[in-house]
Design a protein that fits this description.
Pfam families: Cytochrome_CBB3. This is Cytochrome c domain-containing protein. It comes from Psychrobacter glaciei. The longest helix has 29 residues. This protein has about 110 residues and is mainly alpha-helical. The protein has 2 domains: about 30 residues; about 80 residues, Cytochrome c-like domain (Cytochrome Bc1 Complex, Chain D, domain 2, Orthogonal Bundle). Helix 2 crosses helix 5, helix 3 packs across helix 4 and helix 4 crosses helix 5. It is built from 5 helices and no strands. About 10% of the residues have low confidence. Bound molecules: heme C.
Length: about 110
Amino acid sequence: MSAITTLFTKTCRLLIGSGAALVLTTAMTTSASAADIATTYDNSCAACHDSGALNAIKKGDSAKWQQLIQQKGMPALINSVKSGMTQMPAGGLCDNCSNDDYRKLIDYMSK
Ligand code: HEC
């Protein structure tokens, strides 16, 4: 029994290990790198968050962004972008953004 458990644990570790490597490779090829965050922002989020169109919180309105980050928390904000809101299209017009990209974009807008 314990031998099977050990084997199972090892297999799981192996699976998790290769899964992580896969995620890493995918992230490196398809998602924006840190340097591209400004470009990604310009190409997607800026359409609304630059001008405050449709009542979107403006980039640089740190007080409002900090309040939102504190109230809802970063994971909830990332989910809002991914699933969309009343006025914001799901994904925020970024087709290949990862959770990490969204986190960086939100961070970028909050400054
Ligand atoms: C078509 C306009 C539009 C685009 C494009 C857009 N947003 Fe938004 N966003 C909004 C509006 C409007 C709101 C305010 C909530 C609402 O009424 O939908 C909002 C709210 C948010 C919020 C707050 C969510 C919450 O839970 O309160 C975050 C975070 C956010 N946007 C991030 C982004 C990011 C990151 C991008 C780019 C990848 C983006 N948005 C692109 C319009 C947009």
